[in-house]
């Protein structure tokens, strides 16, 4: 599929914002339970970072709309459309983040502040689900049509948010005990994230081994092959549903994205953990956050370009992992027919 930069920015920045806010509210709640509430500047800083990241994401999404003035119409199908739910939940999440920040700034009762925060966290998880299911529900794009999609959106968003929050805490000079707790959870989420992402890639490598022109047409004949793709020029379907950019370099891009998104933050968080244990200021959190955001943008770009619409099989441009294009080969005798 053709990658839309605006949607890549939306999902990455909004996902990180939701992660930052989740860490912030969790820390606020635990602080109240332990009798050591968070400092006001920590809460305000967290709300501001989360709000600004979400604002960047929403702002970029308008470049994806041919008619931005019609964007309000996106909410009308909320009962049956994940896209409509995402369009509704995003501003609701921003509203809760803003209200939480105002509660912290004006010194509202802790119960009201935490209740507002928890509602925002609940909205953020619903938003993770809606964003992931928007793509996982596309049965005709098999790379996306898997539970890994919403799970990876959630874990990567939380891990990225945790690392961004670590860098923020170090920048504002937050207490070491708070930063240490965030580093531990962010590290764990990052490790879980790399395991799930590798499992996702492993699953996708096996998708098209049995796909060929014979199974596409449902005709069991050994001598079927494509003679004409049915069009003499490129059009919307062949451009938007079959992206060939950087086709020979995607393996390298994938390795770089894994290194930036998971490898580098894991190493940097480990090194950053030691100074905090000794009571010294950590300085690697911000570098880890920049690395992780860059890796997340690359990972999301790969997510889109690796998606291959089923219609490509009929245009002779279907992608096949690790093998020649099956549509251009004679069908193998005895290949199984697709279920009717």
From TrEMBL:
The chain crosses the membrane at residues 7-30, 42-66, 87-108, 114-136, 148-166, 178-200, 253-271, 283-303. Keywords: Membrane, Transmembrane, Transmembrane helix. One of its GO terms (cellular component) is plasma membrane. GO terms for biological process: anaerobic electron transport chain. InterPro entries: DmsC (IPR007059). One of its GO terms (molecular function) is dimethyl sulfoxide reductase activity. This is Anaerobic dimethyl sulfoxide reductase chain C, anchor subunit. It comes from hydrothermal vent metagenome.
